[in-house]
Design goal:
Elements: E1 22-26, E2 29-33, E3 40-43, E4 49-54, E5 60-67, H1 82-89, H2 101-108, E6 112-117, E7 122-129, H3 133-146, H4 151-170, H5 172-184, H6 198-201, H7 206-216, E8 222-228, H8 232-243, E9 266-272, E10 277-285, H9 293-304, H10 310-318, E11 324-330, E12 336-344, H11 349-366, H12 370-386, H13 391-405, H14 410-420, H15 423-433, E13 439-446, E14 465-469, E15 475-480, E16 486-494, H16 507-514, H17 524-532, E17 537-542, E18 546-554, H18 558-571, H19 576-593, H20 597-610, H21 623-628, H22 631-641, E19 647-653, H23 657-668, E20 691-696, E21 702-709, H24 718-729, H25 734-742, E22 746-754, E23 761-768, H26 773-790, H27 794-811, H28 815-828, H29 838-843, H30 847-859, E24 864-869, H31 875-878
Parallel strand pairs: 4-8, 9-13, 15-19, 20-24
Antiparallel strand pairs: 1-2, 3-4, 5-7, 5-8, 6-7, 10-12, 10-13, 11-12, 14-15, 16-18, 16-19, 17-18, 21-23, 21-24, 22-23
Helix pairs in contact: 3-8, 9-12, 9-15, 10-11, 11-15, 16-19, 16-22, 18-23, 24-27, 24-30, 25-26, 26-30
């Protein structure tokens, strides 16, 4: 379930018809203007609100039910997590549908259902292909009004939620956030976790939860939001029909105490099982509708959004005092927080904190530059536009706007206010709010590192993908999509783990990161400044079979985007200082992996499953291998793999294909041809026998993972395995029903796989109470054996097919994701239009195919069983 995380800048969101965006040119600067909201709103006779926004750009829709009740509304049971329990329980059975039928009904139409809880609202959302909208409305209406909260389901879900408590208490980021809010807020309910407090939660009864449900889930406290390829009036009539039997009810007002002004600095530092220090600083700021919020939001962007931000440049890059650092401006319905997050070396915490506060003082005294302010405004606009790329994103925008402000045009008004923010406004709000008396500082530190202290319009359709090939052999994919003034572009090249050895492990990721740290014509700071000054972003990454550089800009900045991408690919200098800094960051990431139990399990499983093969290696490498890497190693690796015949460029967005082709002919015409890499990649030697591996971690949960050798991307078994994966991972799967629902022994359970240029892996996994490892392991292996023997049922296969196809339609809304995956398909030899074959190839899979593949992979070959659990005798191992 999605959880509140203020590590992101949670700003208001735009909600309007994307078809009517216009680009005007004023004084040689491109300005994007927005029309009023085109959403339609109705209030039914029983007080229920319906908001519908038609968007026919993709054959999908997001259907959402927003209840204006969250953790702060729990009144006499404040801190119990009542709203969060209902998030889990509303789909456990209604007066007309039994347990599991709800999830299966949505999956039968190719949809996806989920929910999340926040301080002031709870949201249940369903993303579906357009033909599933009626079903989604029916299911949500039924759950809102008719959930029975079966006592036997409540008892099982209690254990599941206890596992969620344990997961949260194992996560240092999550614990830091909880500590920050518990320290900054003394009276307001924001001081308490949305999930509740375990001691209070354990006292709740099913009857109390039912009373809360009946009191708060009434029509006049609900808002339904539908965005997508729908008929608004038809949705309106359907909802009237669904709710005609449910009258308006009295809604008891809940007293929410105001948070008194903070009159002095608060500071709490705690120890935690971690190798790195997690530091957070925060100041109280007003609620979202306050006129100072636009300036505060822009200030957070200037300080901590992107590589060209002040904190990133000064604290991370120049001083080397942080591995990561960012700023946020959290402005909910009640007064929020302005904050800064950092991950630092324990020995550098105080120095990092002092430098951060020094930079804050500089802004309070001298303000910021006009260039920084203009860049922040463009970044703010770009972030808001990015939220509109999916139907779910648009629906979430509408929901937050309406629930918080009752103004469907709030985001437009907010962006108008952002554009009017002046340099004096930034300096004023910094001086007003970022004071020492208003400051809260918290940190989590490695055990033993602290000295004891006393304190504790008409939609526009996207075009077909066009492919061009330059004389050097570099392939370019272009998709014209004028729905939004955004452009997503990137480059992918064969390499990754398949190109590494134990001695060079981690080189692909290190090289990818250092590519952005300077070229023959630009420093790292200039690259970051140029892209972020236009509201864009640039990033790089590495995987099992490839590495990538991706870049996003708005339409007027296409040429700049091409220039920056090409400069990075052709002219990266990989400075020694940058290499040293990124090695520190990568090594810190390797250490952080040891805190994520599913990652630990996957790492030890892969090592046992692939032994000496590159797929046994870790994406970040090992501490020793990364430390050995030199500038010479990186340059040689780059020169071998970053060549024309080994790469594919994609540009998807508001562009013209001919212009894109011409720009890249000019910019990358001189790229060395080279050769296609990894054509001789070989699979790992067969696993001779079943093996068991284990890791002991001082955590409060256990993880079990069972891994088999899988298929490669070209295997005729590929889609049968993907369907088994889908059928084993959804909320109606046999694993989920038996182990989580019937036995109540796991918080999460599912399957995943890795398919590459050579055969990868297929794994089943779950998270559980460490004391229940043995019975859970027995149940998991038993279900795998049944699957290996019998395959899937017709119902499971039909549901998996619809889900697999539906999820691609939903995912392909985003040009970033769509372009990246088309480029990889082209790079790997499947063809850029491989996605078109998915529906046909998936539909062609039969029950006999599934059974044959299940026998082949899960019965006729050995496996690796990986377990992660606390050490015997530890406090975590004894936790109930």
């Amino acid at each position: 379930m999605r959880r509140f995380a203020p590590r992101l800048a949670l700003l208001p969101a735009i909600m309007f018809s994307t078809a009517n965006l216009t680009t005007a040119t004023i004084n040689d600067s491109s300005v994007i203007t927005f029309p009023p909201s085109s959403a339609q709103k109705w209030v039914l006779p029983n007080g229920l609100t319906l908001i519908v926004h038609e968007d026919h750009s993709a054959p999908v829709a997001s259907v959402q039910a927003w209840c204006a009740t969250g953790s702060m509304d729990e009144d006499d049971h404040l801190g119990a997590g009542l709203s969060h329990i209902l998030e889990h329980m509303l789909f456990k059975g209604t007066k007309t549908r039994s347990t599991n039928v709800i999830a299966q009904k949505i999956q039968d139409v190719g949809g996806y259902i989920n929910a999340y809880t926040s301080f002031d609202h709870t949201v249940f959302w369903i993303d579906v292909p357009k033909d599933g909208v009626t079903t989604a409305l029916d299911v949500l209406a039924d759950a809102m009004m008719n959930s029975t909260l079966p006592p036997e389901e409540y008892l099982k879900e209690q254990e599941v939620i206890r596992r969620e408590f344990a997961m949260g208490l194992d996560d240092p980021d999550r614990v830091t956030t909880l500590l920050l809010f518990a320290t900054a807020y003394q009276r307001h309910p924001y001081r308490l976790p949305v999930i509740g407090q375990i001691e209070v939660y354990n006292q709740l009864t099913q009857e109390q939860v039912m009373q809360y449900y009946k009191a708060r889930y009434v029509p006049n406290n609900l808002t339904f939001i539908v965005v997508g390829d729908v008929d608004a009036e038809k949705v309106h009539q359907q909802l009237i029909e669904f709710f005609k039997a449910y009258p308006e009810k009295s809604l008891k007002p809940v007293f929410i105490p105001e948070e008194p002004p903070q009159l002095g600095r608060r500071e709490v530092h705690q120890e935690f099982p971690t190798e790195l220090t997690h530091l957070a600083l925060a100041w109280h700021i007003p609620e979202v509708t306050h006129p100072d919020v636009p300036a505060l939001d822009l200030l957070s962007t200037i300080l901590g959004d992107g590589r060209s931000s002040r904190l990133y440049g000064r604290v991370r890059e120049e001083a080397g005092l942080a591995y990561s650092i960012s700023a946020f401006s959290y402005t909910p319905g009640d007064p929020g927080l302005f904050g800064i997050d950092a991950i630092v070396d324990p020995k550098k915490r105080e120095a990092a904190e002092q430098l951060v506060l020094h930079i804050i003082d500089e802004v309070k005294q001298a303000g910021v530059t006009a260039e920084e302010l203009m860049k922040a405004k463009k970044i703010s606009l770009s972030h808001h536009l990015g939220a509109l790329t999916t139907m779910r994103g648009q629906a979430s925008d509408i929901g937050s706007n309406w629930l918080l402000t009752r103004n469907l045009n709030f985001s437009r008004d907010y962006l108008d206010a952002v554009q009017k923010v002046t340099l004096d406004d930034i300096k004023r709000v910094a001086a007003k709010y970022l004071t020492n008396d208003n400051l809260t500082t918290v940190s989590l530190n490695p055990k033993g590192s602290l000295v004891a202290k006393a304190e504790g319009g008409k939609p526009i359709s996207a075009g077909e993908i066009q492919k061009f090939e330059l004389p050097s052999g570099l392939r370019i994919l272009v998709r014209e999509d004028a729905r939004l003034p955004l452009v997503a572009m990137g480059a992918v090249f064969r390499s990754g783990l398949l190109a590494e050895t134990a001695q060079t492990n981690g080189i692909t990721r290190l090289m990818a990161k250092v590519l952005l740290k300077g070229t023959k014509t630009r420093t790292a700071e200039q690259i970051a400044n140029q892209i972020e000054a236009v509201g864009g972003s640039i990033a790089s990454d590495a995987g099992n079979n490839s590495f990538s550089v991706s870049l996003d800009v708005m339409k007027p900045d296409l040429k700049l985007g091409v220039e920056l991408l090409s400069d990075v690919l052709l002219n990266a200098t990989m400075p020694e200082k940058a290499i040293a800094r990124e090695k520190e960051i990568q090594i810190a990431g390797i250490k952080q992996e040891e805190e994520q139990l599913t990652t630990v399990a996957r790492n030890i499983l892969r090592q046992a499953l692939f032994t000496q093969h590159p797929y046994a290696l870790r994406a970040n490498g090992s501490v020793e291998s990364v430390q050995r890497l030199t500038q010479k190693d990186l340059l040689e690796f780059r020169d071998r793999y970053l060549v024309a015949k080994n790469g594919v460029i994609f540009v998807f967005g508001n562009v013209k294909a001919a212009e894109v082709k011409q720009l890249f002919e000019q910019a990358l015409g001189g790229m060395k041809p080279g050769e296609l890499a990894l054509t001789d990649a070989h699979p790992a030697a067969p696993l001779s026998k079943t093996e068991t591996v284990e890791s002991r971690k001082e955590k409060a949960q256990g993880v079990i993972m069972v891994g088999y050798r899988g298929a490669d991307l070209f295997s005729p078994d590929r889609y049968a395995l993907e369907l088994i994966d889908e059928a084993s991972s959804d909320l109606g799967s046999r694993f989920f029903i038996r182990i989580r629902e019937q036995m109540g022994l796991a918080y999460y359970v599912g399957a995943s796989q890795m398919q590459g240029l050579v055969p990868g892996l297929f794994a089943f996994y779950l998270g559980t109470d460490p004391q229940k490892i043995e019975p859970v392991k027995t149940a998991l292996l038993d279900e795998i054996r049944k699957l290996a023997s019998d395959g899937l049922t017709n119902e499971e296969l039909t549901r998996a097919k619809k889900k697999l196809i539906g999820q691609q339609e939903i995912a392909n809304q985003s040009n970033d994701s769509f372009g990246y995956h088309c480029a990889l398909d082209e790079l790997y030899g499947l063809g850029f239009d491989y996605y078109k074959k998915l529906e046909h190839d998936v539909d062609a899979v039969t029950l006999e195919d599934i059974k044959r593949v299940a026998v082949k992979y899960f019965r006729d070959q050995p496996y690796v069983l990986a377990t992660v659990r606390p050490p015997d005798g530890s406090a975590a191992a004894k936790q109930k």
